[in-house]
Write the C-alpha cells for this entry.
Amino acid sequence: MTFPALLDLPEWKRFVLAAQTCAPRADGLDLIEAPGLVLDTSGQRHSADLLAAGEALLEARDFATQRARLLAGDEVNVTEHRAAWHTVLRAPRGPEDVLSARERVDAFVRRADSERRWRHIVHVGIGGSDWGVRLAVTAFGYAGTWRDVRFVANIDGHAIEGGLAGLDPRETLVVLVSKSFTTAETLQNGARAREWLKAAGLDPAAHMVAVTAQPERARAWGIADTHIFRLWDWVGGRFSIWSAVSLTTALSVGSDVLAGLRMGAAAMDEHFAQAPLAANAPVRMALAGIVNRSVLGQGSLNIAPYDSRLANLVPYVQQLDMESLGKSVDVAGRPVGVPTGPAVWGMPGTDAQHTFFQWMHQGSDGAPVDFILCRQADHHWPTHHRQLLANCLAQREALMRGKTLDEARAECRAEGLGAAAVEALAPHRVHPGGRPNHLIVLPRLSPYSLGALLALYEHKVFTQGLIWGIDPFDQWGVEYGKVLAKGIIAELGAGVAASAETAPPAATPHDASTHHWIEALSS
Amino acid sequence: MTFPALLDLPEWKRFVLAAQTCAPRADGLDLIEAPGLVLDTSGQRHSADLLAAGEALLEARDFATQRARLLAGDEVNVTEHRAAWHTVLRAPRGPEDVLSARERVDAFVRRADSERRWRHIVHVGIGGSDWGVRLAVTAFGYAGTWRDVRFVANIDGHAIEGGLAGLDPRETLVVLVSKSFTTAETLQNGARAREWLKAAGLDPAAHMVAVTAQPERARAWGIADTHIFRLWDWVGGRFSIWSAVSLTTALSVGSDVLAGLRMGAAAMDEHFAQAPLAANAPVRMALAGIVNRSVLGQGSLNIAPYDSRLANLVPYVQQLDMESLGKSVDVAGRPVGVPTGPAVWGMPGTDAQHTFFQWMHQGSDGAPVDFILCRQADHHWPTHHRQLLANCLAQREALMRGKTLDEARAECRAEGLGAAAVEALAPHRVHPGGRPNHLIVLPRLSPYSLGALLALYEHKVFTQGLIWGIDPFDQWGVEYGKVLAKGIIAELGAGVAASAETAPPAATPHDASTHHWIEALSS
C-alpha cells in the first residue's frame, strides 16, 4: 500500500508548526458563507500560514481526487470494499432505483394521510436507524404532531414496554429499521410489538413495515412485500437519514420536511465539491478540529445548539463523528501516531450553562465548542429569543476572552470586599480564556438549513478521516462486544460461566469479575 | 491559609508512583458491598500499595474530620462561607424546619391526590432545579403516569411553547423552581405560563406554586403564600433533589418514591461515614477517579447505565460532577497543578453501543466507564433482560481484555480470508484493552437503590474535591457569562454593540466577531 503515514508527511510537520505558532486568538472576523448557514471560525486558531499549511496537507492527501471519488460513489470504504454513496440519496437527480425508492415512501405517506390512518407510530431501530429520525421529529414536531411517534431502541424490556404503553394497537404502525435485519435489539423489540398486535386480535403484517437492505430476511420474519422499503449496502447506518429510514419522519412531520432536508444537504454537497478550500465550510471545520485534537491535544468536542428543538443533534453528531473517527489505525494498518477523533458530547444551551459550563470556563482542559443558533425563531416571544441569542454570544465571548486575576480583583473590589477577601476570592473568578470555538448561524431552523448542517458535519468527518488516514466508513470495533455478548447470553441462560475448565476450546476463560457476575446474574 | 498544595504532599508523590507501577489489570475480584448496591472495582488499577497510598493521601487531607464537618452541617463551602448540608434533608431525623417542610410537600400531594386534581404538571426550572426531578420521573414513571409532567428549562421560547402545547389550563399546575427566584430562564418561562393561564380566564395564583429560598420574591411575583415551598441557602442546586424541589416527583410518581430515595441516600451517608476506607464505596470510586484523571491523564468519564429508565442519570451526574470539580484552583487560590474533574458524558446501553462504543474500544484515548445495571427487571421478558445483562458484561470484558494482533489474525483466518487479506484487515480488529471501569449492580431499580446511587456519586465528588483541594460546592465560573449576557441583551435590543467608542466606561469592547453578530442579530 502506498498510502503515506501522517507522521512521514513534511506537510504535517509544517501544519503542526504553523498551528503551534498561531496566536490563541486573532480577534479578526472570519466568516464562511455556505448554503443554509454561516460558519464563523473567528474563535479558532488562525493565521495565513496555518491555512496555507492546511491546504498543502490536503493536497498531500490527494483531497480533490478523494472527494470526487466519495461523491461519485467509488469504493471509498476501503476496509469493507464498498462505496459510501449517501450523497446520491439526496441528489436532485439520481439513479432510477434511488428515485423510485423515494417515491415509494412518499406514496405510502400520501395514502396514510389521505386515509387518516396510523394515529401512533412505534419506530423500532437503534443507532443510525434511530437518531436521525429522532432528530428530525424533535426539530420539526416539538409542539406535537397529529401522529404520536414513540422510539424504541434499547434491548432493555422497559423501552418497548414504555413504547407501547397506552397506545391503541388498531391505530398503530410499527416501523422496524435494520439494515442487516439481524440487529438483536430491533428484532427482539419487533417480536414484542408483534405479540402485542396479535394479542389485540390484529394481523401483524397489516401493522408492521420494515426498512432494510435484506428484504428476504424481512419477508421471512413476516413483513408483507408491499411493506418492505429498501436500503442499499453502501448506505452506512450513520448516514441513513437520507434513505427510507426516514419513513417515520415523513409520517410525523411530512414528506416536505424530507425534501427540504435533502435539498439543503445536496446544496452543501455542491459547496463541499466546489468552494475553494479557504472558503469551504466543511474543510475549514475539519482543519480547525485537527488543530484542536492533534496539535493542542483537546480530548473532546462540545456541541452546543442554542435551540431546544436540536436536543437530538448531539447524539446524532456524536454517532456520526465518533463511530467514524474513533479509530487509531490508518487504512494501511499502521498506528496514526497522533490523537484522532475526539469524544463528542453536549447539550442545548441554555440548559448546558446550568449543567456543565462551569467546567467549560474553569476546568483543567475545557473543550472546543460548536455553538449553533438560529437567527429567527418560530415562536412569538422576541424577549425569549433575544435572551437566547445573547446567552450564546456571551458564553462564547467569555470562553474566548477569559478574565485575568487583575480583572477579578477589580470586580471583587467593586463589590465592596476588603483587601483580604479580595485576595482570597479573586483567584476563583479567573477564567483562562482562549478556548476554541465555531459559531454556526442558521437563518432559521428550516429543513433546508438542518440538512445543510448535517452534511457539513458529514464532510468535516470525511475530511478529517482523510487527513488522519482513517477509513471513516467502517466500524470494526463494534463487532467484538457483540461476539462476546452471544457467548455470555448462552452462559447466563445455562447458569454457568465459561471457566478454564468449562470453556469451549475456542473461547478464552473470563476474568474473575466477569465470571463472578455471570454466575451471580444467571436466571 | 495552611491548606497544603497537592503537589507539595509527599503522600501525593507516593500515590502517583504506586498508581504508575500498578498492572493495568489485576484479574482479581474486588467487590464492595454498600447499601442498595454493589460496587465492583475489579476493572480499575489496583494494588495493596496503591490502596495504602490512597489512605495515606486521605489522611494527609484530614479526611475524617472534613467528612464529619460535611455531615454535621459545618461551613464546608469555604469560598461562599456556608454549609452544604443536603445530607440532613434525607436523614431519618432532622431539624424541625426540615421535617415540617417535608410534611408540607406530602400534605400538598395528599390533598391533590384525594381531589384528583392537576392532570398536567408543568415543571419550570433549570439545571439543579430540573435534572433530579426529570431523573426520578423517568426512572419510575417511564410507562406513563396519571399526571402528565412536562419539563421546561431552556430560555428558548420553543421550550415553553412545546411545554404548554395541548394542555388543558384548568387542569394544569405550574411548578416554578428557583433557589434565588432570579433565574432568568425560570422567571421568563413562568411569565409565559402565567399569561397562558390568564388567557384561559384562570387565576394564576391558584395554578402556580414556587419552590425557593427567597419566599418574599416569590410572593412579590404573585405566588400565594400557601403555594410557596421553602429551600435553604445551604442547599446547592445540584443537591436539591432532596428538598421540596421534588414536589413534582411526588405528584408524578408518589411521595413513597421520595421517601425511598431519601432512605437509600441516608443509608449511603451512613456507609460513607462509617465504612473503613478500603471498603468504603464512595472513597474507592474517588481514588480510582483520581488515578484515571490525574495520573493516567484520562480526560473524560463515561456513565453507561444499562437501564433505559436511567437516561437522565447521565445529565444528573454530569452536572453534579462537572459543576463541582470543573475548577483548577484550590481553596487557597493556587493552581491545583494536576488535571482535575473530567468531562462526564454517556448514554444508556445498549443505545451507547450503537452510538459511540466504536470510539470506546478503538479510539485514541477511550474513557473510563461506570457501568450500571439492575439484577432484576420490572418487566416480564427474561430474554430481553438476559440480553441486556450480557451486553453490559460483554462490553466491559472487551474493554478490559482487548484483542491482540495475533488474535485478530486468527479470527480473520477462521473466516477464510487469504494471507494478504488477513494482514490488511487484522490491524483494524485489534483492541488495546486495559480500559478502566466500575461496575455498579443494583438489586433492582428501587427508589432506595437509586437514592443510594446518587449519594454514592455525591460523596465521590466530595472526596475528590478534598484530595484536589477544590471547593466542590461553589460555581464561580457560571457568573461571568451571565454578566456578559446582560450587556448583550441590552445591545441586541438597542441594535448597537458596545465598541471602543460606545462601550460604557466599565465595559471592555467586544472582539470583532461578537461585535459583528450583535449588529447582525439585533431586532
